[in-house]
Amino acid sequence: MMKKRTIAGFMAAAMVMGLTACGSSADTQETTAAQGAETGESAAEGEAEAEASGQSGLEDGVLSVAMECSYAPYNWTQQDDSNGAVQIKGSSDYAYGYDVMMAKHIAEELGVDLEIVKSDWDSLVPAVQSGTVDCVIAGQSITSERLQSVDFSEPYYYASVVAVTKKDSPYASAQGVADLAGATVTSQQNTIWYDSCLPQIADANILAAQESAPAMLVALEAGRVDLVVTDMPTAQAACVAYPDMVLLDFTGSDDDFEVSEEDINIGISMRKGNTALKDQIDSVLSELTVDDFNEMMDEAISVQPLSN
Predict the structure, then answer these.
(1) Where in the chain is the domain with CATH 3.40.190.10?
(2) CA within 13 Å, CB half, 277
(3) pLDDT-based confidence at 147, cuts 50/70/90?
(4) How far apart are CA 132 and CA 293, in angstroms?
(5) How far apart, in whole angstroms, are the C-alpha atoms of residue 212 and residue 208?
(6) Would you identify the CATH topology of the domain 8-158+270-303?
């Protein structure tokens, strides 16, 4: 996510001011792998056999989806089912946001039930690899590095990279990356924001990466950094949650952050080799347009905690 990508958690941590467990979807693959081992095959050969059989993991009638439930507007945690929120597995809380909206649409189109599993950002890829969940819908960029570990659907959102600072910051009127020179900055760990974008700021004082998007924004609100780099939806949500923040968008200028298509293409990750599930999800996404994505994201931002 990009986050590479609550308000409830975000807001719970920040909120004080205000602001992804195990599924059975991979049972068939795991059983096949075990049987393979018993006959002298490796676990990998067993998994390959399951994949070759065309099983998607949805044979149990459930689409199990992992997300942080704390990365508004992509996903967040709330206490009730308002706006169509889905109860988090093993919790009395509910999850909602763009990712939940998309997950509900995919599950409905595929004719299966939806299960939301809450998991930390760094646990998302392992959850898919282990078969604990069917897929991850959590604002992940489709990077070549991640593609070594998991497969991705076609993009379900396109997110440009921006910066966020305080309205009274000396960087509030920045017109390009060059104008951010010398700033004290941070972003979320294991994201292109932190690993790729922050180093593009000349003479930047780059502090340790933050464990989550909410923590990144709390650092900015508390004055520990001058600005953070994130994606457009996260920045838009932040400016709703924190009225004293301002979004710096250099898109289209000659001095924007240098990112690749893979950095801004947000996809749904799944176990490597699960072409059956990928084909099913891609068939649903192919019926949606960029305008559909944007309309859904706008709705998510409008109903996120503290938006009213």
Answers:
(1) 8-158+270-303, 161-261
(2) 33
(3) very high
(4) 28
(5) 12
(6) D-Maltodextrin-Binding Protein; domain 2 (3.40.190)
